[in-house]
Amino acid sequence: MEYKNPLGVDIDLETGVIPGAKKLVRRLSDLKGYFVDEKAYEELLKENPVVYEVYAIEQEEKDGDLNFATTVLYPGKVGREFFFTKGHYHSKADRAEIYYGIKGKGGMLLQTPEGRAEWIEMGPGTVVYVPPYWAHRTVNTGDEPFIFLAIYPADAGHDYGSIAEKGFSKLVVEENGEVMVVDSPKWKE
Ligand SMILES: O=P(O)(O)OC[C@H]1O[C@H](O)[C@H](O)[C@@H](O)[C@@H]1O
Ligand SMILES: [Fe+2]
């Protein structure tokens, strides 16, 4: 039997950085078609800000193993919509996931393939259980980076297809200074 080595790392709780992790950067240009307000998107694209960064420690895609990653989701809006992660189903759709809030303010939008959506607010210390089959997207509703940890099966994979195409059935927007979850005009069954 070949055993893998255990690993302990300290997440920097201020910046979300995991030492030795693989870093992924997503800019606004990587999110083309994701926001409803296309005019506001084109305008902000001139600056092309970083929307989020992911620091991941990933294993081979094998049944039974676990990956973990922090995400640093920056504050901002495109039109009325708060900055968010792309969002995905798992390629192995029955794989669940756990998120843990570290810093800042935000939430998670979850959705079944039929379009039943749920919104769960997150702050430091919030644990969110993502059940099998639910798509999930995080949203920064605050004015500082929203940082969280996620732990997920190594063989879960990311299925971006249907979210990239029609998004979630709900949008998280600012209305009169309040965070509101409203129906998405882009959603079609
Ligand atoms: O992949 P996205 O939907 O853009 O979300 C960004 C990332 O968020 C978390 O860190 C998840 O653990 C990652 O699996 C995911 O890649
Ligand atoms: Fe996931």
TrEMBL record:
Domain Glucose-6-phosphate isomerase prokaryote as annotated: residue spans? 25-180
InterPro entries associated with the record: G6P_isomerase_archaea/bacteria (IPR016758), G6P_isomerase_prok (IPR010551), GPI/OXD (IPR051610), RmlC-like_jellyroll (IPR014710), RmlC_Cupin_sf (IPR011051)
Q: In which pathway does it act?
A: Carbohydrate degradation; glycolysis; D-glyceraldehyde 3-phosphate and glycerone phosphate from D-glucose: step 2/4
What GO cellular component entries does it have? cytoplasm
* Protein name in UniProt: Glucose-6-phosphate isomerase
Where, per UniProt, does this protein localize?
Answer: Cytoplasm
Record keywords, A-Z: Cytoplasm, Gluconeogenesis, Glycolysis, Iron, Isomerase, Metal-binding
Name the chemical reaction catalysed here.
alpha-D-glucose 6-phosphate = beta-D-fructose 6-phosphate
Care to name a GO molecular-function term for this sequence?
iron ion binding
> What organism does this protein naturally occur in?
Thermococcus aciditolerans
- Family stated for the protein in its record: Belongs to the archaeal-type GPI family.
Question: Which coarse location class describes where this protein primarily resides?
Answer: cytoplasm
Which Pfam families does the record cross-reference, listed alphabetically?
GPI
